[in-house]
Amino acid sequence: METATQILLLVAAAIRLATPLLLAALAGLYAERSGVIDLSLEGKMLAGAFAGAAVASVTGSVWVGALGAILTGIVLSLLHGFATVTHRGNQVVAGMAINIAMAGLIPTVAQAIFALGGQTPQLGPAQRFLNVALGNNALTFFAFLAVPATGWLLYRTGWGLRLRAVGENPYAVDTAGLPVARLRYQALLVNGALAGLAGAYLSMAANAGFSRDMTAGKGYLAIAALIFGRWAPVPTMLACLLFAFADAAQAQLQTVRILPSQFVGALPYILTVLVLALVGKGGGMPKALGIPYVKERGA
């Protein structure tokens, strides 16, 4: 009976830990299916975590806080699009620039506003996403429901067909009279909203406020899950659950003390490296991913 209880607790912990990874990975899925590499998930999550907790702390409303996180993620995605879609800048550099900027800017802003060492005040029950059923909260249910919704949007709607087409062959899309830049910006709007919500989960559900560096590399784990999942919704979800299970398992192994704590704590990241080494770029990657679209002269 005790073993069964431990397994159930481990599964429940994995689902909770998978939630921000899944939201961020789906965010990356929309951007990269449109042909835009998004390495800025870490920065968007961090900004969303701060914005959500800060707005909820000031307004007293969890929903207004979540809206603040969503809008913050969208603003950063629009900035990313301005650099990479409008001005055709290097997508990897632009993404990393957002990460670096947010890592330095967010704690500074937090300190300037709240003077709590780069943190926000502790959030009360009305300012957080509390567990509503099966030990999970509204954002967890939303994240897992977003998987079939994303599959339906991408594979069963005209918009999804156009989005996938622009990630595969933007020249053919342009020849058909469809706006390449507009489609990529639309994907980035969804990307920013989901990435902001991923950050909000960290500060408003998993924790009771924002703290410095609370994303702890989860944006990069989400990118690894997206690659492992071959840029498809359900396999990406399974990859997020795998990484989350490794994270939950290492937390339990820390208490057993069978292995050195440093090794146990690194297990999720070791697993990520092994997965990426085994999977590589493989199939499923959009063919125009990372390639700025330059309209042909006379077209």
TrEMBL record:
Q: State where the protein is found.
A: Cell membrane
- Cellular component per GO, a single term: plasma membrane
Which residue spans traverse the membrane? Answer: 47-80, 92-114, 134-155, 188-208, 220-246, 258-279
Q: Which CDD domains match?
A: TM_PBP1_transp_TpRbsC_like (cd06580)
Q: How does it sit in the membrane?
A: Multi-pass membrane protein
GO molecular function terms noted in the UniProt entry: transmembrane transporter activity
Q: What is its main location?
A: membrane
Superkingdom in the source lineage:
Bacteria
Matching entries from Pfam families are given as: BPD_transp_2
InterPro entries under this entry? Answer: ABC_transp_permease
Q: Which UniProt keywords apply?
A: Cell membrane, Membrane, Transmembrane, Transmembrane helix
rRNA processing keyword on record = no
Name of the protein in question:
ABC transporter permease
What species does this protein belong to?
Roseiterribacter gracilis
Biological classification of the source = Bacteria, Pseudomonadati, Pseudomonadota, Alphaproteobacteria, Rhodospirillales
